[in-house]
Amino acid sequence: MATVLSDRDIQTKLSGLPDWSLSGKTITCTRTFKDFVAAVAFVNQLVEPAESAGHHPDLEISYNRVVISLSTHDAGGLTEKDFALAQVISNLG
Ligand SMILES: C[C@H](O)[C@H](O)[C@H]1CNC2=NC(N)=NC(=O)C2=N1
User: Record's HAMAP family (predicted)?
Assistant: First the structure.
């Protein structure tokens, strides 16, 4: 199982991901699109990287806004897997 990161490691990794913030034992990112169709298209882009990583974001769609939350449920906190997937998500259009 992946190892939970220390608070210090989490802060270091977050400093390289300006669009993500810490919320308890998760990191979250909010993206806004022109409409619901564009928001859903973005969510569909997450399927392949999530399946490839065997790691899946929690997603909340509100019309044109998508809130993405990452945490490693198995480990009970944030691990390298969350930051690796966050970086991939940040690189998407
Ligand atoms: C067996 C399977 O790989 C695990 O249940 C994976 C699936 N996707 C997951 N996704 C997330 N975000 N956290 C997990 O702990 C997790 N576990």
Answer: Pterin_4_alpha (MF_00434)
Decide: pTM greater than 0.90.
yes
Residue 22 Cα to ligand 1 midpoint, Å, equals 19
1: in domain = no
Residues in the chain: 93
**Per-residue pLDDT in tens (0 to 9) along the chain, 93 residues:** 789 999 999 999 999 999 999 999 999 999 999 999 999 999 999 999 999 999 999 999 999 999 999 999 999 999 999 999 999 999 997
Kindly report the CATH number assigned to the domain that includes residue 29: 3.30.1360.20
Q: Is residue 85 part of a domain?
A: yes
**Ligand 1 center from residue 23 Cα (angstroms):** 19
Q: What is the ipTM of this complex?
A: 0.92
Q: Is ligand 1 within 6 A of the CB of residue 51?
A: no
